[in-house]
Amino acid sequence: MSSPPSAEPPLPALRGDQAVADLAGWHRLHPLTPVVRAGTRMLSLIVLLAGIAVLKQGQDSSQLITDLVILGLALAGGFVSWLVTRWQVAGGVLRIETGLIRRDSRRFPLTQIQAIDVVQTGVARVLGLAELQLRVAGSDSARGGRLACLRLADAERLRRELLAISVPQPAAPAAGQPELRAGPGAADVPERRLFRVRPARLAAAIVLSRAGAVAAIVIAVVAVVVAVTGSTVAIASFFPVALGLVLTVWRQYSSEHGTAVAAGPDGLRLRSGLIQVTAETIRPGRVQGIRLVEPLIWRAFGWCRLEVDVAGPKQRRENRSEGQRLRALIPVGSRSEAEAMIAELISSQPAARSRPPRRVRLKAPLLYHFLAWGGDERYVVAARGRICRKTTWIPLEKVQSFRWVQGPVQRRLGLASVLLDIAGRRVHADIEDRPAAEASQLLARLPAQARTARARFG
Q: What is this structure's pTM?
């Protein structure tokens, strides 16, 4: 096996067979990769060591040398990791090899890639670098394809080249869908802007969200406690809760700030982030489900949120809460903006007009007026929710299985539900509380429609 090259030259702007041949050689990550990877961990380590040094001031004069040795070992470990990591693209497969004592070689067939993202942390933005992340359905996020870090221009160019290699030319666009051409040179086609979030509206929407309501309650409780006790010492007990709320609100605003969606030849291009900027491409046919969320307070302003579920990596335990969040194409926008975006995602928009029978009031008196479903030959749509209304569209070709479910209360009322399981598992278009006979008919009819849709559109 040949040794990695001594430096990582800039990737040339090539196309077609010339670009493929250039990517077939072994490449190395940017030399400043260890600095970016250390990032906040290195900053936290410095703060921790500084605190220890202050506490031990005057007790141990050799503490500074020990701290410097720890920092040096951390940087040395990052340098060794960079030195033994290399990558190449050959035969439609991305290969990433790393490891000094235990060699790890990973192969990612480009045809199985769900999306390719360009991510910039705060440190990477300062250094002009970026990380390339490959998302493959069902894979662990910790073992996904990651090239961290490359020059920003090289990362964007490599993403275009990989998409050009991996996306096949479609035979014909589906009815009502724009024609998306892939292949060499497709990325040069100008993109069409679809949506950009307004910062002021985003901030107001977060304040009027569940997190904002909890923050208002905490502030009210603190004010009452101070007024009753006359002392500010009691505020200390609420500090961890307040800090958690502030961080939650800040993460949401920071991650969704500047969200912009554009239609390109390789799919929908999504860019978002205030400090850590993420640029990803949702390729045609990768959307598992679409959800329109309309909270009660937002409805007074005509606002809504549009989310999509894209099959991607499984999240590790420490990243599970982040992984449960869907991709917000529209963090907050008007109903007309959401309908225009839905039209870009699906060829038809069946409405949820089929209401449940009146006896459902005995089981769900609050949800009865908001339960409905509908569909056509390709999609199923379901609506539910009173305080937070949610409408979900599911492509039938993405459905993995159908389940007929009947609980004890449903059994007494002669009702049943049909549940649709998809790969994403984060959105649901369940047909709830239908007459048992109708649910049985749906269970017999929908699988055949799904097979037909999979043959035509899958």
A: 0.75
* pLDDT tens-digit map of 269-322: 999 999 888 888 887 778 889 999 999 999 999 999 999 988 654 444 333 333
429 token code pair: 């278009």
Alpha helices in 398-435 (DSSP H): 408-413
DSSP-derived 3-state class of residue 103: coil
- What 3-state class would DSSP assign to 266? coil
> Could you give the CA distance from residue 70 to residue 47 in angstroms, rounded to a whole number?
13
Q: What is the DSSP string of 161-174?
A: HHHHHHSPPPSSPP
Q: Which two tokens stand for residue 188?
A: 């040069």
* Ramachandran class of 390: left when φ > 0, alpha when ψ lies in -120 to 50, beta otherwise: beta
**How far apart (Å, rounded) are the C-alpha atoms in residues 129 and 169?**
31
Q: Which domain holds residue 205?
A: 198-256
What distances in angstroms separate CA 402 from CA 376, 417, 430, 445, one per listed residue? 16, 10, 10, 11
Nearest to 130 by CA among 145, 149, 146, 106: 149
Helices and strands (H, E) in the chain, number of each type: 13, 19
Q: What is the residue type of 442?
A: L
How far apart are the C-alpha atoms of 267 and 182, rounded to whole Å?
9
End-of-domain residue from the set 211, 241, 256: 256
Contact 245, 290 (CB under 8 A): no
Nearest Cα neighbor of 396 from 358, 324, 347, 361 is 347
Whether 303 and 399 map to the same domain: the answer is yes
